[in-house]
Amino acid sequence: MVYGLLLLGCKVDLRTNADWPLYSGDAIGSKYSPLDQITKENVGQLRLAWTYSCGDNSARSTIECNPLIIDGAMYLTTPSLKLVALKADTGEELWNFNPDVQGGGVNRGVTYWAEGEKARILFVRSSFLYSINALTGTLDSTFGENGQVDLYEGLGRNVRHAWVTAATPGIIFEDKFILGSTLGEGPGAAAPGHIRAYNVQSGHLEWTFHTIPQPAEEGYETWPPDAWTWAGGTNVWGGFTLDEARGVVYCGTGSATYDHYGGNRHGANLYSNCILALDARTGKRLWHYQTVHHDIWDYDIPCPPNLVTIQKDGHQIDALAQPTKMGHLFILNRETGEPLFPVEEIAVPQSDIPGEKTWATQPFPIEALRYAGQNFDINNLTNINISSADSVRVRLSKMVTGRIFTPPG
After folding, report:
1. What's the rounded Cα separation, in Å, for the pair 295 and 283?
2. Is residue 345 within 8 Å of residue 315, measured between CB atoms?
3. How many helices (H) and strands (E) would you count in the chain?
């Protein structure tokens, strides 16, 4: 179900800034709406205005889509990944597009593009990127092959046995649609997580950034020599933010696969677990900052950085703020990638798994920027009740516990 809410006594706000035109609200990832009609004083007056039934629920139904709202229309995906357009004020269906392709999964949103008389919705289902007419819900036949692009094409090797899709929408800069991917994470072979930019009108591939460096590319030495021919992951699954004035796109990358063992990929493994700044026009790497070296904990970066401006030592600095799964907040200079607050490489426990070679240190920001627990042991025992505490105590007695970055054993 999709629901619309109405604030009693309020008129529909038709201001231009009532739109929600991008995933996360805007290109810098603020997730902020300037609308001020709903306040903490009147939020209790919200009432159901309309309901839209998607009609494709299942035992594993989920809607994780962040809908777009543009010129009074709402664009979203359903549990089975149909693309739907609704009237935002009434919930009335304008159109729906259900591609003739197997495969569902999670979808977190779509991308809108318009120029002159053209308006398109770009979205991914299964291993295909589609361009859909935003007014009619029909395929744009001038895009790719009859309105779709095969995401397996251009990966540089045959990985059709592996899962390749994109759960989070891409972002548009000028005429380029920049897209990450969602890949398998298990011990079997996985696809490489190339970052790719497609021409937003034709679907032609404009540039590719290899997150697993190939020979002669910077970072190649941080992997075994032939890793680029078989290694997988290091994908951008959380989306992008964009500094439009500078023409720079930012993202966070995932772990190399397999996520919990790296004995076959000795080295720091650039550009896994990295904050990346790329030239949005060319895909050229401008800088990177690795938040985990040789990840074996599935500590991939789960979201793009927020682009912010901070005041430090009396100066306004354009920066980015990158949250992580470790509860570490990295605040970097947006132009150079340099930390604006100290980051220390601290020695961490080493693996005793045969063949594994963990990294000796990991980067830790100052304590004020560590926003979650950094240690787990008997002192973190549940206090819900005595029986639960006793049960967990027995289980913990058979486990190795300690501070963050304790390796799997």
Report:
1. 25
2. no
3. 1, 27
**Parent domain of 398:** 373-409
Would you state the structure tokens that stand for residue 52, as one six-digit string? Answer: 């839209």
Domains identified in the chain, total number: 1
The dihedrals phi and psi of 17, each to the nearest 5 degrees, come to -75, 5
* Residue type for position 100: D
Kindly report the three-state secondary structure assignment for every residue of 354-392. CCCCCCCEEEEECHHHECCCCEECHHHCCCCCHHHHHHH
The answer to whether the pTM exceeds 0.70 is yes
- How far, rounded to the nearest angstrom, does the alpha carbon of residue 25 sit from its chain's CA centroid? 14
Q: What's residue 14's pLDDT?
A: 46
Q: How high is the pLDDT of residue 5?
A: 60
Measured between alpha carbons, how far is 211 from 283 in angstroms, rounded to an integer? 11
Smallest Cα–Cα separation from 283: which of 193, 176, 152? 176
5 is written with which tokens?
């809410």
Rounded CA separation 122/178 (Å): 11
Residue 405 lies in a domain: yes
For the chain, the distance separating the N- and C-terminal CA atoms, rounded to the nearest angstrom, is 44
13-17, 30-34, 279-283, 389-393 — which is least confidently predicted? 13-17
User: Rounded mean pLDDT of 367-377?
Assistant: 94
Backbone φ and ψ of 274, nearest 5°? -115, 145
Domain membership of residue 264 (yes or no) is: no
Which structure tokens are listed for 178? Answer: 């920049």
